Amino acid sequence: MIEQLHANRDLPDVDLKKLIETSLYDQELFRHADEVRREYYGTDVYIRGLIEFTNYCRNDCFYCGIRWKNLKLERYRLSKSEILCCCEIGYGLGYRTFVLQGGEDPFYTDEQISEIVAEIRKKYTDCAITLSLGEKSYESYELFFRAGANRYLLRHETANAEHYAKLHPVGMSLENRKRCLWNLREIGYQVGSGFMVGSPFQTTACLIEDLRFLQQLRPAMIGIGPFIAHRATPFNRFSSGDLRLTLRLIGILRLMFPNALIPATTALGTADPQGREMGLRAGANVVMPNLSPVEVRSKYELYDNKICTGDEAAECCACLSRRVRAAGYEIVMDIGNVRPLKEQLPQNHKTREKV
Ligand code: SF4
Asked: What is the pTM of this model?
């Protein structure tokens, strides 16, 4: 099965189900995944400077600690000059990608976001600007793109509509999430998507649907992490997603999407102190250290016990460099673009799904 997945970048649903549900093939899977990541990226691990600039959000996703209904959370917003200061520190440390991430916060108008993006673009012409601001209109995405943003992260979280409805309040829909992703691609962004592993009510069939959706979307970046409950959410009594299953899915993703940028996420490091190192060995090739000011870090609490909330940017970077090296790889200070596929995907892959 693993050899077939490696060669064809695909497996029938029945085999994917077997592979997802057993740890029997894990070692072989990780060996093949590492071979593919080295074929495309050698030992390079790309680094992205994460700037969490607002923890206000108008949404109420049931799994998220910064949902608006969490009235106990102390909220913050960074000003344009504070965001630019984070970029300056990051640039000095060697970062060549900045990720501006926040809840869906209507306080920042499209014009304000565009101004911030344009200012970063003007100062750092050799950097990629990634936005992660949630669902917006086509016109807003286009405006940000014209201002100089070139990447956008928007996880679909689950590609099963019924499951999506169990994780989100009325008014949010998988249809709109997918529409946003297709719009981003059409505008010309390098798109990142992904899903939670072990979220409440998730089944193996849901995970297979996630993989099938990603085969249609073919994002440049795929971020997955285990579900971790937050105490102030309706899901506070659900147990966390399984670390081994998350690693297995990273391995599967590497074989299905050989050239993808796959982060070893903070959630992996929260699930296990060695989680990010394990993620890298399973096929991940990106890490995202935090560049946000230390005083706001703990307030961007998507889930309980989130790690890396106390270190200054330089310490965070040094710590990750050590961890990456210990795992057998090397951080490279590079813009970190996706490498081209060595050959076309097999013809039987579906292309675009209209929504
Ligand atoms: S997951 Fe994103 S959109 Fe949903 S509540 Fe959290 S920050 Fe807001």
From this structure: 0.94
